[in-house]
Structure formats: C-alpha cells, structure tokens
Design brief:
- By secondary structure, this protein is α+β, with helices and mostly antiparallel strands.
- The chain has 2 domains: about 5-125, Sufe protein. Chain: A, CATH 3.90.1010; about 140-210, Fe-S cluster assembly (FSCA) (GMP Synthetase, Chain A, domain 3).
- Helix content is about 30%, strand content about 20%.
- The protein is built from 7 helices and 8 strands, in the order αβββαααααββββαβ.
- A hairpin with a 4-residue loop joins β1 and β2.
Length: about 230
C-alpha cells in the first residue's frame, strides 16, 4: 500500500529548507544511523547574548519523511530562543506538516531529538550545562525508549506500556516488547527502532530485543537484533 503524504510534506521533501552545513557552527549533533535507514545532522549558530538561533541547517540520510520533518523543524527553530525550541515535540512538527503516517512518526521524533541534541551541545560549550555521563542501567534505557513510536498508534512504546522487561547485564541489554492484536505487522519496525535507540549508549556491546504477542509467544526471528 502506497504511503499517503500531505501536500506540505511533499513540498518540504521536493523543496527542503535550510539544507546544508554551517561552517564553523556553534554546535553540531547527529541522530539516527544509516544502518537503520534514517540519520540527521544539525548545525546551529546561536546568538550568545539573546540565545536566539540565528541559523540552523541539516543534512539527511533517509526517506521523504526524514527530509520533510528536518526541513520543517529548522523552519520552526530559526529565530526562536533555545528555550522555545527545547519545548518542541514530535507532534508539533508533524501537525505543522499537515500530519504524518503513523509509520513515519519516528522521523518527527528524530528531527526534534536532533535539534535538542545540538542545543545541548551549545549549552555545554557555553558553560550553561554539563556533559551528562550516561548510566548504563534500566532507568536510562526506559528514558531513551520514550522516543520509540509504535507506528500503529503513533504513541511511545513506553507510554503505551508495551515494554514489559528491561535488563542490563554488563554490556548486554535485554528488552521485551509486547504487541497488541493489530501491531504484529510493525514488529520489525519497532525492533529496529528499539535497537537503534539503545545503540546510542556507547556502553552497550550487545542488544537482544524480543517482540512478543499478547500471549507472550515470541514472534518469528525475535531471538536477537541480528535475527538469529
């Protein structure tokens, strides 16, 4: 089935705004991974006195939604203060695009997270924030997984209480995700998003994501992130 996009999404895909890279940028951040299909890099220039984002650019490795959401996110961010942009969320960007298919809401999450990561880097460079040491534990993983969206509902797998089990054993992470009656077709999409999100923790060497149906039976190829 062909994915239906709004006219605004199409416009931002065919004529994206703020594409490129700022030379001598004040901050740079990359979110996502080309191995999983979507990646964005943002560069910022911020006025140190007013904290207004004077310029923001992006480079994309991904689909039409990836490009469109990044384009819209930069349009919304330019001219705003960093505090205003820190209140952005994926829903705001998606609504400004006239909506996104539920299977593409993760692109909006990626765009917003990328912008906020760049802002964080700028704050650190200005002494306004400190680099946070990532604690490799269940609470950190649960926090990270709030950005993973169920394509069927458009809601986080954490807020939907789909994640039933998280365990950290040294550099190995185990996660179990329970699907609803109509979620099975999105199993691999969810697995990839969970794996990619946890991979951002440099302390992790191995990730095992088990996708279970309502009766807790493991779906085909659910043994680990390599499908073995």
């Amino acid at each position: 089935m062909a994915i239906k996009y709004s006219q605004t999404v199409i416009e931002h895909f065919t004529n994206p705004q703020n594409v490129g890279e700022i030379e001598d940028a004040d901050a740079t951040a990359t979110e996502g991974s080309p191995a999983c299909g979507d990646m964005l890099t943002f560069t910022l220039r911020v006025n140190p006195e007013t904290h207004i984002i004077d310029d923001v650019r992006f480079r994309s490795y991904g689909c039409a939604s990836n490009i469109s959401t990044a384009s819209m996110a930069t349009v919304l961010a330019k001219g705003k203060t960093i505090e205003e942009v820190k209140h952005f969320n994926a829903k705001i960007v998606a609504e400004k695009l006239g909506g996104l298919p539920s299977t593409k809401m993760h692109c909006s999450v990626l765009a917003v997270n990328g912008l906020k990561a760049a802002i964080k880097q700028w704050e650190i460079s200005q002494g306004l924030a400190e680099e946070e040491a990532i604690q490799c534990n269940e609470d950190t993983i649960k926090k990270l997984l709030k950005s993973v969206i169920n394509p069927h509902t458009g809601k986080s797998i954490i807020s939907s209480e789909m994640v039933s089990y998280i365990k950290v054993d040294g550099a190995k992470v185990f996660v179990e995700v329970n699907l609803g009656d109509t979620d099975e077709m999105y199993a691999e999409n969810i697995r990839e998003e969970v794996t990619e999100t946890i991979e951002s923790m440099k302390c992790v060497d191995e990730i095992i994501v088990r996708i279970l149906d309502r009766e807790k039976f493991e779906l085909k190829n659910g043994e680990n992130n390599n499908g073995e």
